[in-house]
Specification:
Blueprint (H helix, E strand, L loop, with lengths): L1 E7 L2 H14 L5 E7 L10 H6 L7 E2 L7 H19 L3 E5 L3 H12 L3 E5 L11 H11 L3 E4 L2 H9 L8 E4 L3 H10 L17 E4 L3 H4 L2 H17 L3 E4 L2 H9 L7 E3 L4 H10 L2 E4 L2 H9 L4 E3 L7 H5 L3 E3 L4 H12 L15 H8 L2
Parallel strand pairs: 1-2, 1-4, 2-3, 4-5, 5-6, 6-7, 8-9, 8-11, 9-10, 11-12, 12-13
Helix pairs in contact: 1-7, 1-15, 3-4, 4-5, 7-12, 9-14
The structure holds uridine-diphosphate-N-acetylglucosamine (UD1).
Uridine-diphosphate-N-acetylglucosamine (UD1) binds next to helix 1, helix 5 and helix 10.
Length: 355
């Protein structure tokens, strides 16, 4: 029996865990226990994903949130250590690049428990981003690195990982597995967004680099308002961080904002929209999975293959460039039939590693 302790805490991790947990449960020789750090805690940021994606109820909920980076990561480290000592897992499995990721990996490593990192090797090469710090440190102490793309493998090789005693596995991206599986269930679901008509742009915005910097945030808000009034209506599910910062900076979004949505409603909107605008990592790929172009509101992206193939473009937080990029991308026609992320086989490859 292989005992895996999975650490999740933030919204994109629930999506990834939903897909991989489903696959792990097919194997009687694997036992998975889930720890929710509590980083995301509101019903529509957390519980809704567990319910509608049928993720097993977490065995532990640590309820740690709304603290500074140091306090949040420190408290998580302390509490995850207690769970590891009690459960004695063979592996601790972490996802992505959040504070919950680094806390889980570090707690495990100090107790000599092996660390598995799903979505390893990604780099934005912007060390100012908390996510970049979390990724680099988590990768360095992982025993197996499941890379979503060939570029991620190359990044690790460039950093000298050939000389480090860790397995590097090109698994593909578990988010594509999730997208394919849950899209096939969409027709069974009652949706909040079922009456949304076509002909809109879907936008999300939450990165610290955009929301915490008043100048960047106001440029983006001005661009979105202008696009909404003059090009096409914009629908924006509003992340709690962004809501707080808009109020703090006294900025007014004139687009159609809605509360954060569950996974099925998001898939529904991606399928219906004409274009995606986002600073999220996950949504850039989900746009591609559902054959939509994307304008990324960042200066770099970890998903460079989307740029190289012309599915995505970087517009940063520059009002003129954002508006121009939206016009260009709305008129673009692309062939989306490319295998960039493993075509939905990532969870199977990862589960097989633990057999
Ligand atoms: C975190 C991750 C980011 C990931 C994102 C997905 C880090 C450093 N960042 O960013 O990589 O892309 O999650 O959404 O781990 N809040 C609520 N209700 C909630 C959740 C958050 O009010 O349910 C508030 C928090 O109290 C905080 C703010 O939103 O004030 C930001 O939350 P936090 O978890 O620190 O970072 P995110 O911006 O969500």
């Amino acid at each position: 029996m292989t005992k895996i302790l999975t650490i999740v805490g933030a919204r994109p991790q629930f999506v990834k865990a939903a897909a991989l947990s489903r696959e792990l449960r097919k194997h009687p020789s694997i036992q998975e226990l889930i720890v929710h750090t509590g980083q995301h805690f509101e019903k529509n940021m957390s519980d809704i994903f567990f319910e509608e994606m049928e993720i097993p109820k977490p065995h532990y909920n640590l309820e740690i949130n709304s603290l500074s980076h140091g306090a949040m990561t420190g408290r998580m480290l302390e509490e995850i250590e207690k769970v590891i000592l009690k459960e004695k897992p063979d592996w601790v499995l972490v996802y992505g690049d959040t504070n919950s990721t680094i806390a889980g990996a570090l707690a495990a490593k100090k107790l000599h428990v092996k660390v598995a990192h799903v979505e390893a090797g990604l780099r934005s090469f912007n060390i100012q981003m908390p996510e970049e710090v979390n990724r680099i440190l988590t990768d360095r102490i992982s025993d197996v690195l499941f890379c979503p793309t060939q570029t991620a493998v190359k990044n690790l090789h460039n950093e000298g990982f050939k000389n480090i005693d860790a397995d590097i596995v090109l698994s593909g991206d578990v988010m594509q597995d999730a997208a394919l599986f849950y899209a096939s269930k969409l027709h069974e679901k009652e949706l909040q967004t079922s009456d949304f008509q076509d002909n809109f742009i879907l936008c999300t915005l939450h990165r610290a680099e955009n929301t915490d910097d008043k100048n960047r945030l106001s440029q983006i808000v001005e661009a979105l308002n202008e696009i909404h009034h003059t090009i096409k209506p914009v629908v924006l599910p509003l992340h709690p961080r962004t809501k707080k910062k808009l109020d703090e900076h006294n900025l007014k979004l004139e687009v159609n904002t809605v509360n954060p949505l569950g996974y099925f409603d998001m898939i529904n909107l991606i399928q219906k929209c004409d274009l995606v605008m986002t600073d999220s990592g996950g949504l850039q790929k989900e746009a591609f999975f559902f054959k939509k172009h994307c304008v990324t509101l960042r200066d770099q992206t970890e998903w460079v293959e989307l740029l190289e193939n012309g599915f995505n473009t970087l517009a940063g937080a520059d009002k003129t460039l954002i508006i121009q990029s939206v016009s260009d991308m709305l008129n673009k026609i692309s062939d989306f039939d490319k295998d960039l992320y493993g075509k939905g086989k990532a969870t199977q490859r990862i589960a097989e590693y633990f057999l």
